[in-house]
Each structure stands twice: as C-alpha cells, then as structure tokens.
C-alpha cells in the first residue's frame, strides 16, 4: 500500500466491514467520509473523534489537539476532553517531548479543553514522533439539523468553505520545507505569511456557529484537501457535487509555495478550512462572518453522483471538468520529493 490514507476500496473492504457489535447507543457509526461518531449514553449525546499526526514535525502537539477538536465540532459537538497518545523514537531528546506537551497544553487552553489522559511510549523502528488524539465532546442542543454528519448533504444544498484552501498544508510546507522553498526564491515575507496561516487551523468557533445557524452537513478539510473533502461528503451522502473554481479562496502565500513545489493547493491537507452543506447559505454565512471568519459559497450538492468543477475561460464562457478523488494528499508527494 502507498503512503497516506488508504484507498476507499481498501477502507470499505477491510476496515468498515469489521466493526464489531451493533449497539443501540451508537447514533452515528463509523462510515466512509465520517470523521466523528455520536453516542447516546442514557440521554446524554456525546460526539467523539480520533486522528493522528504523522507527516508534520513542527507544531505537532498543537496540531494533534486542534484537528480532533475540529472533527468533533464539525459533528455538532463542543470539545470537552482530549486523550493524547505519543509514540517516540529511541533517539528522542526529552526536550522534544516537553515541546510537544507544551504545544498541546497551549492548544487545549485556547479551546478550553482538558487533556484527560493518554499514553506515552518510546519504541524502536520509528523515525519521528507519532501523535494520536481522541476527543470527547458534548452535543450542542436545539440545532436545526441533527445529527450533523458528512453523509447528511442533500441535492440543492450549497457548499460553503471557511478561510481558504490548504490552511494546514501551507503551514507545514513553510515549517518543514523552509530551505527547499528559500532555494526556490520564496522570499521572507511570503514565508512569514505562510507560517502565519498556521494560526487558523482551529474550526471550532465557525463549526459551532454554523451548526446553530443551519448547517446540515459539515466536514473538516484534512487529507486530500478541498477536492478530497467534497468527494468524501458526496460519496457519504450518495450525491454529487459541482465546484466553482474561481470561488475557491486560495491565499497568495499558499499559491506561491504550491507553485514552487509543483503541488495542487486544492488537494493539499487543509485542516482549518471547514466544508459546510446547507439549504440556508446566507443564514449560515452571516453567522460565520459575525465571528470574523471569512466564508464563501464554492459549489453546490447535486443528485447526479458526479464530482465536477466549473472553470471560467479567459475569453468568456466556461468549461465543466470531471474531478477524480485524490489518490493521496499532496503533502506526501512533497515528502517523497524533497525530504
């Protein structure tokens, strides 16, 4: 198997076909495209999610907390507690563990979340720290749509995107490929802008605002970028989707770094951008902009089962292009080419 997320075929055939017992408490079970599960524990509904950090080095402790909290919030929950597992190579200096925990602590404080446990271990045959977090959250109450899942999108819903493409990917490229980028004439100002984008990785505030305003489906944009997230939402919902290329926001620094490394920003990991499907786009957009988070309508859910992008032509008119789901995230291609 190739480096990166396993393919949908393998996921469905080897993972999602082996899920243990069915329990009535499980409201939203594991499924393709779903990043969070919902449990009903005697009237208290809980949203849970887990995620690893495997490709990033700089700021890994912060990322580990934020990305799993993002998934819980995108599932209509308020993050409460984090379980943090840290696997370290034998050569790890204690200062690295201290840095990881300081980063995780600061991120958890920022979101008013407790680190409630986990596991820390040094093992052989590991070349860099591997982190995994599981976040437990409480479901928000009195929402227009519940549960909020990746599979809830319906034909006619508008697709909204907060912030811009490749938020996390831009920060990782700036931190972990700095020397390569400087050698390719990326100036210090662009690098500083790219590094600053890393401050935008949490989607918890806008996810909670969108849930209360009428989001029907939400998906944190992680591996595979914008194209991957839209594909996963459409596949999970049994729908199609059309994207308007000119409406997808891409920061100038993101565009510069991706061009320098020959990467596609729409297929680059993008925690920090939230994909929303809703029949009430203006209400949701108003709620999100009210908390000073940028958001744009980038497409629409269709009923044809196809994933497509509309591109405006320089001389006028437009062309519709069929999109294929990403085979793997662009970050892994960068790792293979430049590390």
3D structure, described in words:
The chain is α+β, with helices and mostly antiparallel strands and 339 residues long. The protein has 2 domains: 117 residues, 60s Ribosomal Protein L30, Chain: A, CATH 3.30.1330; 189 residues, PurM-like C-terminal domain (Phosphoribosyl-aminoimidazole Synthetase, Chain A, domain 2). Helix content is 34%, strand content 26%. It has 11 helices and 13 strands. It has a 7-stranded mixed β-sheet, with helices on both faces. Strands 1-2-3-6-4-5 form a 6-stranded mixed β-sheet, covered by helices on one side. Helix 6 crosses helix 9. The longest helix has 17 residues. It is globular. The protein starts with 7 loop residues before the first helix and ends with a helix.
